[in-house]
Structures are given as structure tokens and as C-alpha cells.
Amino acid sequence: MNILDYIQVHRSRFIDEWASLIRIPSVSCQPEHKDDMLRCANRWCELLLASGCQHAEVMPSQGNPFVYAEYTPATLSSATKTVLVYAHYDVMPAEPLELWQSNPWEPEVRDGRLYARGADDDKGQAMIQAKAFEYMVHEGLMNCRVKFIFEGEEEIGSPSLEAFISEHRELLKSDIILVSDTSMIGKDTPSLTTGLRGLAYWQIEVTGANRDLHSGHFGGAVKNPLNALCEMLAKVVDENGRITIPHFYDRVLPIPQAERDMIAQIPFSDEAYKQAIDIDDVFGEVGYSTLERNSCRPSFDICGMWGGYTGEGSKTVLPSKAYAKVSCRLVANQDHEDISRSFVDYIQSIAPKGVRVQVTPMHGGQGYVCPIDIPAYQAAEKGFEIAFGKRPLAARRGGSIPIISSFEQILGVKTILMGFGLEANAIHSPNESMDLEVWEKGIVAVTEFYRHYAKN
Question: What is the pLDDT along the chain (456 residues), one digit of tens a residue?
């Protein structure tokens, strides 16, 4: 049976199995869902065994458990390639619930899409991998050894992953790592992700007086922590969109002209982009296009800020404390730990008198670039071409998956990012969804990856 027929015959079951995962609210950042994390891990074990794995188990870690499964073909030789499939089973919180058009934990199909939290990120994309694998095994076509490693902490920065990888280096030994947790340029413009930005994240606490102060009695005479925080953060990016942290750009490599030419071929309109997110202009580093800025260049953003009185009505106070959460997206060759230390030193150096400043580094990770001339990339490229009817563009993406660089550093293996998400899928937002046509084409693409990778 060919793959398209197989999908149609088993489509209802595929979606039911997908839904069984979604109904488990595996929210890693909320402690009340700890039992749900284990439930979801166990459910993945059941599904991977049913899909053809000969072994699957839930493995403990310093945090949420891992799922490990493996399949070894009957005919095994030194030439048999090993593919390690990575995914994550944790999801973001569904709040604010009032903005959902349907229950985020009860999948609903409408207008050719499946709506639910985790529909795309990453339960939907992980199911693409599982069902492509199932078809290849069921039809006796799988000529690769396949291992699966699914984690439950990706959405909180994968704090347990590096230790787990280091401890189980032999178990995870492979020739290539395959990940479906990224996006395409568009439904009609398939693309393979060839690069990801790194990440550094901090929380800043600014302390002034030993209590909130009356703004009439103290305003103008005492440094306001919120004012001080705003003053400091306003200095981090200059009028040309350049980050002012000393030595920040020392290891940033220029974008090769060949890559800039490739980016210029991507169908993109600044006007449509502005209209889609309802802004009147774009902003970024002078000398670069929007697509270059959000994929190949670093950035700095204030992710949250709070302090003082924010309730109904007014309260005239100088707050005792002010806080902010801030982050940098980094590019390949920048070290997130070096950048993190530099940022802490920089903020301390520009802190005004009258307040005390504490900067706490949180999670971070390295950027990643995948070469496009290796056999695994070429097999993925062929898979996309067969599934979508056109050769995929090679494109860096602006997001971060810190564990990809960890895999390379610890296991010495490259990762192929076969992602099938779309901007319209609204991951991390209310009404997250997955386009079912793209989802099915994703299964075809991964199936063809295995065929061509085994041949190469």
C-alpha cells in the first residue's frame, strides 16, 4: 500500500491517537501538572510500541521523565544508518482560556484544521514522525535503525536534557538527529530550517527605598526603581537597532552574500507583514531586511516588566522594587554564557545611584547552523519535494531550540529540522491549530526521508 492510501485508511485512528495525547494537559511550567507529565510520557510509550518499536520505556531524569524507544530492522549491517528522532511532549499553558473558541484540551476539527493546545507544538509534529515511522515498519520498508527520545521540559528550557544526554551517550548514539518542531515559510512555500538563533534570558530586580513611598512627599527627591529600570533598558538598543553591550558583536559573523541572495528569493512583503500583526512600521538593525533581522541577526527584547501599583484606580507611590524579564536572541558563533555574563556586567555598570540592581541569568542556549550538502539534508529535501511538489527553500529561523546545539556538542551529530508548522498555527497562543493537509504531507515527507536516507 502506498503512503497516501495508508494515511486515508488509518486517518481516523491517527487523529484519535493524536487527540489522546492532547487531552493530557502536560504543562511543564505548572507544578500541578506533574502527574500529567508522567501520564503523557506513558501514553507516548504505548503509541510508539503500537507504531512498531520493539522497545519503549519511560526513563527518569532530574526533572520530568524522558520517553525512549527503538526499532532495529531484521537485516542489520555496518552500513545501516541510525536515526534519532527528538520531540517534546510538554506544552505551554492554555491561558487565557476565554480567548479560545473551543476547549484547548479537547481537540476540535474545523475548516481543515485541528484546534487544541499542542496541536502543532509539538504533539502534532511528533505524530507526523510517529506515523511516518509506522508506515515504513508496517510495509516492511524501514531500512534504518530508529531511536526516539521525547522530553517533557522543552518549554521550560530543557534543564534536565544535557545531563541526560551525557549520561546516555551510548544509548543515543546515531548518525543523524531528526526533529519536527520548526515551521515552514508557507503552506505553498515549503522550506527546511537550516539555522536557529541562540538565546540568553535574565530577570532584573531593582530596589530603591525600604518601602513604597508617597510620590508627593518623595517624588523628585528619591530615585524611582521603575524609572531607573526604564532608563537602563532604554540604553541597551541604540537608534540604529544595534545592541550596546560591550563586545556583543565580536563573534557575530556577517551574512554571506549567497545566503542574502537566497533570503531575497523568499516570498515576503513588509506591507503584508505589518498588516498581519497590525503595526504601522517595522524596526530593526539598520542595513538588514526584516527576514535577515529576525533570523540571521541578534536581537534584544523586554519580555515583561512590573512594579508599583497596577490595580484599578490610582495610587500615587514610588515603588520599592521594579522587575523585568529580558532576553537576547543570538546567532551562530555567539556563546550564550559569555553574552549572559557581559549583560550582567553591563547593566551593573549603567545602574544609576540611589538603587540596587540584581541581574539573575535564567535559561539560554547556543545557535545552530545545518550544512545543506550532507546526505541527510538532501534526503529531507527530497522528501519535501515529493510531498509538496516543489523543492523546499533553505531558510534560517529566528526561534531557538537550545537542545539542538547540545546534541551536536555532546553527541557530535548534526540535526535535520523537518518542521511543518505555519505562522497561522498560532503556537503558544490561544486557538493553536494544525493544518491537516500539511500534517498529512508531513507524514509523506518524513516517509520519503527514510527511503532516500537509507539509499544514500
Answer: 999 999 999 999 999 999 999 999 999 999 999 999 999 999 999 999 999 999 999 999 999 999 999 999 998 888 899 999 999 999 999 999 999 999 999 999 999 999 999 999 999 999 999 999 999 999 999 999 999 999 999 999 899 999 999 999 999 999 999 999 999 999 999 999 999 999 999 999 999 999 999 999 999 999 999 999 999 999 999 999 999 999 999 999 898 887 888 888 888 999 999 998 999 999 999 999 999 999 999 999 999 999 999 999 999 999 999 999 999 999 988 999 999 999 999 999 999 999 999 999 998 888 998 888 899 999 999 999 999 999 999 898 888 777 888 899 999 999 999 999 999 999 999 999 999 999 999 999 999 999 999 987
pTM: 0.82
Residue 55 in contact with residue 70, Cβ under 8 Å?
yes
| Grid cell in block for residue 451 | 527511503
Task: Please provide residue 226's backbone torsions phi and psi, each rounded to the nearest 5 degrees.
Answer: -65, -45
- Compute the radius of gyration of the chain from its Cα atoms: 24
Alpha carbon distance 142, 134 (integer Å): 9
Say if residues 225 and 319 touch (Cβ distance below 8 Å). Answer: yes
Apex 179 CA angle, 51 and 451, nearest 5: 60
